[in-house]
Design goal:
By secondary structure, the protein is mainly alpha-helical. It is built from 5 helices and 2 strands; from the N terminus they run H-E-E-H-H-H-H. A hairpin with a 5-residue loop joins strand 1 and strand 2.
């Protein structure tokens, strides 16, 4: 037969209540131990009986005091996070309102700079607006002059580069024409018809000079005789 269901209410009999307390307390401690081991959880159990006697259990790797401190810190941090979130929300709302005002002011200023919505401006405001426009115009003119100078400098650099490239191309063309003229000269029939001198038929100039010298000496001797 299965176990019957027990009605959950206070046990009036003192003896039965004490026996049930001991059994249930031991079962609770056992379940807490199994939970800490199987799930690697940090578990702490505090039980007081009806007479005020304390029964406690904590995980093996931590003490009950550390677990209580961790619990308090967690609950305090949670409440602080709620307060911080509320403060941050309020600050963001104020920042958004301020940014909207700045955007509206900038929009009015931009329209004033192009000559719109100036009907309700007094003399002082119009004077300040005129000063801002003059200052902006001076900056625009200065930047325009700088851009023109940059374009002129860039044009000069491009002109120098083009001139250098033209000189290089002209030099290459002249070299090519000279090479072609040389090839044409070498390919003419008159150049090919010139006789080739053999090494055995070539008489050195020094030998010819020496032979002429001896011939002149012989002729002088004969004349003296």
């Amino acid at each position: 037969m299965g176990r019957g269901k027990i009605e959950i209410k206070k046990i009036e009999n003192t003896t039965n209540r004490n026996v049930t307390f001991c059994k249930r307390r031991n079962g609770l401690m056992k379940k807490a131990f199994e939970l800490s081991v199987l799930c690697d959880a940090e578990v702490a159990v505090i039980v007081f009986n009806n007479r005020g006697k304390l029964y406690e259990y904590s995980s093996k790797e931590c003490s009950l005091h550390k677990t209580i401190q961790r619990y308090r810190k967690t609950t305090i941090d949670s409440s602080d996070r709620g307060a911080i979130t509320e403060v941050n929300t309020r600050n963001w709302e104020e920042e958004v309102a301020k940014l909207r005002q700045d955007i509206e002011l900038l929009d009015i200023t931009n329209k004033n700079l192009v000559g719109e919505r100036i009907e309700n401006m007094n003399q002082k405001q119009l004077k300040n607006l005129e000063h801002k426009i003059d200052k902006a115009f001076s900056k625009v003119r200065k930047r325009k002059e700088e851009v023109m100078c940059e374009k002129i400098a860039l044009g000069r650099r491009n002109e120098d580069m083009l001139k250098q490239e033209n000189d290089e191309i002209r030099s290459w063309i002249m070299e090519r024409e000279c090479y072609q003229r040389t090839n044409m000269l070498l390919s003419q029939p008159e150049y090919n018809a010139l006789p080739a001198y053999a090494s055995q038929n070539f008489v050195h100039g020094n030998l010819i000079t020496t032979a002429n010298h001896f011939a002149r000496q012989e002729q002088t001797t004969l004349q003296l005789g």
